[in-house]
Amino acid sequence: MYTEKVMDHFTHPRNMGEIENASGVGTVGNAKCGDIMRMYLDIDDNGVIRDCKFKTFGCGAAVATSSMATELVKGKSVQEALSVTNKAVMEALDGLPPVKVHCSLLAEEAIHAALWDYAEKHNIKIEGLSKPKNDISEEEEKPEY
Amino acid sequence: MYTEKVMDHFTHPRNMGEIENASGVGTVGNAKCGDIMRMYLDIDDNGVIRDCKFKTFGCGAAVATSSMATELVKGKSVQEALSVTNKAVMEALDGLPPVKVHCSLLAEEAIHAALWDYAEKHNIKIEGLSKPKNDISEEEEKPEY
Amino acid sequence: MENKIYLDNAATTKTRPEVVEAMLPYFTEKFGNPSSIYEFASQNRKAVDEAREIIAKSLGADISEIYFTAGGTESDNWALKETFDAYASKGNHIITSKIEHHAILHTCEYLEKHGCEVTYVDVDENGVIKLDQLKKAIRPTTILISVMFANNEIGTIQPIKEIGEIAKQHNILFHTDAVQAYGQLPIDVNELGIDMLSASAHKLHGPKGIGFLYIRKGAKLHSLIHGGAQERQRRAGTENVPGIVGFGKAVEIAMATMEDRKKKEIYLRDKLMKRVLAEIPYVRVNGDRSRRLPNNVNFSFQFIEGESLLIMLDMNNICASSGSACTSGSLDPSHVLLAIGLPHEIAHGSLRLTLSEENTEEEIDYTVDKIKEIVDKLRQMSPLYEDFIKKRS
Amino acid sequence: MENKIYLDNAATTKTRPEVVEAMLPYFTEKFGNPSSIYEFASQNRKAVDEAREIIAKSLGADISEIYFTAGGTESDNWALKETFDAYASKGNHIITSKIEHHAILHTCEYLEKHGCEVTYVDVDENGVIKLDQLKKAIRPTTILISVMFANNEIGTIQPIKEIGEIAKQHNILFHTDAVQAYGQLPIDVNELGIDMLSASAHKLHGPKGIGFLYIRKGAKLHSLIHGGAQERQRRAGTENVPGIVGFGKAVEIAMATMEDRKKKEIYLRDKLMKRVLAEIPYVRVNGDRSRRLPNNVNFSFQFIEGESLLIMLDMNNICASSGSACTSGSLDPSHVLLAIGLPHEIAHGSLRLTLSEENTEEEIDYTVDKIKEIVDKLRQMSPLYEDFIKKRS
Ligand SMILES: Cc1ncc(COP(=O)(O)O)c(C=O)c1O
Ligand SMILES: Cc1ncc(COP(=O)(O)O)c(C=O)c1O
Question: Which of C279, C364, D251, D376 has its Cα between 20 and 30 A from that of D103?
């Protein structure tokens, strides 16, 4: 079902984890739909993404797209990162099954959400970035055991 | 599908053939339905069936019931022959498949038709015998090549 | 002959050993459910896709147009019932022929009880559909024309391309029951203008219980069998993987050997016909002499009844079939033989012999000898023959 | 482990070698069409009858009440659609449960579009149908109650006898989808008051593509699939003889080994449950603990998603299944898990393991070890787990 690249990024995710005191953190998706991605960005004073980490609740494609997205934005400027599209993520993974395309969109959104957080925290405006819509805080249901 | 007895009477039919100047001949059935039976009776002056022969156009069961019917009436008096029922024919054959029961009825009718013919020719009335309904002459269609 | 001579390949065929071979691993080794996501099952998904590809290619169709079913009957039911359902807003009229298989005719009867109007077009004395009648039958409410590719009893091949053109001109869907033709004749659904096509594996040396319906892209039919998302949500139920794999293999072989088989079968068929016609009086061949399935012979022997003939052939190790009422459990003889204008008693005396490439010339000669003997014996027993001879003399 | 550990027997099972053995002669040797009248085919008729007898006996039914179909899905479609058709004069209301298989639920949706009214009765948190709700749902127009014998996801066994009694009291037909239960649990249709029952061979180590519908004498349903006179005119299509023979053999073995299998499977199942519950935090067992199929385990692991879990298990050679949306191609997780009240994200984290007698204790231990490792790994990756831990500390 998945390409080798997807499987590789799923089983050996790059940059999985947290960044303490990150410059920006963004969480998108929704447990209801089965996918939540969180991106941590460490951005230096020149606006270059020094480090990027992720955590993901979701399917194999969700993990792989998160992993690949971190790879693609690392070392890039904020503006460059902004133009990393879901298509770029998919291409870098040698493609996704049609039913999984939404995972790559989520990865794009997660980066945007983290950048938005960074911009808010630092009180700057990033050209072409609007408030992300899919935030985990919008989620209604809570786990209950 | 057929019992051994049926198969035996089908493959080695008893009394198959014609009787010249028979005392009575009866033909029942209808080519349309795929079954025609003709019975020839040779009846002596005491009203005993000396000989009985048949010709049949029809399925295995039709042939076997004809054959068995001739066996059952041979040597019998006209009155006795009249009481040879389709059930008796079926029992003597160890049974017939349900869809073939009509063949045994046809055999009963064929005997009746031959007896009727005998009665008419000899101007006698046989107690309990009515004019057979299924005569080949009622058939509409004729073979046409 | 010691060995059985099987001349009933229109009823069903022997599954080829290569086909069984191909199926076997999918029972006990690669037994996974193709819908499962683990690797172990994905090989089955692949096997199903490969079979689908072989079949699509054999028809000039796209793989997305082939839907596996449990056989020709289900495919026929699906095509008719779901066209009726999906195109209700356009109309409720279906055109078919009088000589279709019961899988079509009984489905039509069912639909008639549910508001469908069906026109049953006549065939000529050779079993060829009357195209002018078909054209005249078309109404604004006609949603489907369903005419079989080749008849299962008398082997007549229909003018499919012409029907396809008529259907297209009037923007009507065209379904063909190709259960007998598929694997015997080359079929290109695009060339012939076919929108739906039914086939069944066991008629071409594949396994029983598996078939397909080809549905042209754009035809809007929904599922006949509802449930899981199998077959792109159009035919629910866990895929019969061994059956599908076997079907694919059978088609692959059928397509590769078609020309050679055809030649051999036509040679034997024609020899059989010629000898019977030359050596037995009062017999006719049913069906078209030239527009005919390579493996089909159908005779009517006057004065005798088919079931008796079959049983006696059986006792001589020859497997054949008849349009006699007695063999079907109904009272009337074959509707096909009646539709080509045979009187009942001649229809009753019919014999169908359907060959395969496995038959030998020796078998054919033996069969003719036996038919001769048996027909003669049964005629001696027949009151109809007696009358005929007496009248003649 | 080098060898694959197959824990998805609710999806499909390995065909038993004895079953394949029994089927084989019917492909290439005894390949005749059971409807043919010659001796060569009558052995197939007999083989079909024998299988039918084995199956009838296994249910306490009469042979004339068993109708072979292409699988559980067709049987379910048949029972519902043709009851709706045949009993239209009595009413148009069907009662079923919220946790039926899609073969029932999607058929109900189809029927709703055609004038049928359907009540979907709730289940409790263990997946047991609410009998009081079912009783209250009965109307004068109710023609059918269809409730599955045991659920395919969470293994809960329904109070079939009670439902049978309710149905009988109200003179309503009772159908049960026993696709998962048949062969695992003893079933007597008379004792339980079942009027119709669906089963599928491939769920009990028989072949794919063959099933049956039990129809109690007196129930008036007509055919779903129209055509030839097979199956006493109620299910047309050339009989899948190898499939039927294989089904018979599978049932014979299933009935003979039921008790031993059950013991073994329950032992392994309970061990699996106990170890997971003891060794992994934040997990729950779905389905009833005691009214449960012997071979079914269903967990929900909090904070993780099922497909990831499945893929990682697969990489460790373990075949399992999940109610996660991702595995079904739809967006919502399993309707069954939602019906027992699980929130979406917990339903997404579900894992179904379904055993067979072939599984070993070693396999179970290995599987638990792997689940532990993988769940831990996925939780380390999970933002939900991160939040949970942070909140807690
Ligand atoms: C022309 C035709 N259509 C349909 C069928 C039905 O196919 P099956 O019996 O495989 O369902 C047959 C064969 O029985 C056939 O000859
Ligand atoms: C409860 C239940 N009903 C029906 C079915 C459908 O059976 P099949 O896929 O064999 O048609 C299944 C299995 O998929 C099932 O588990």
Answer: D251
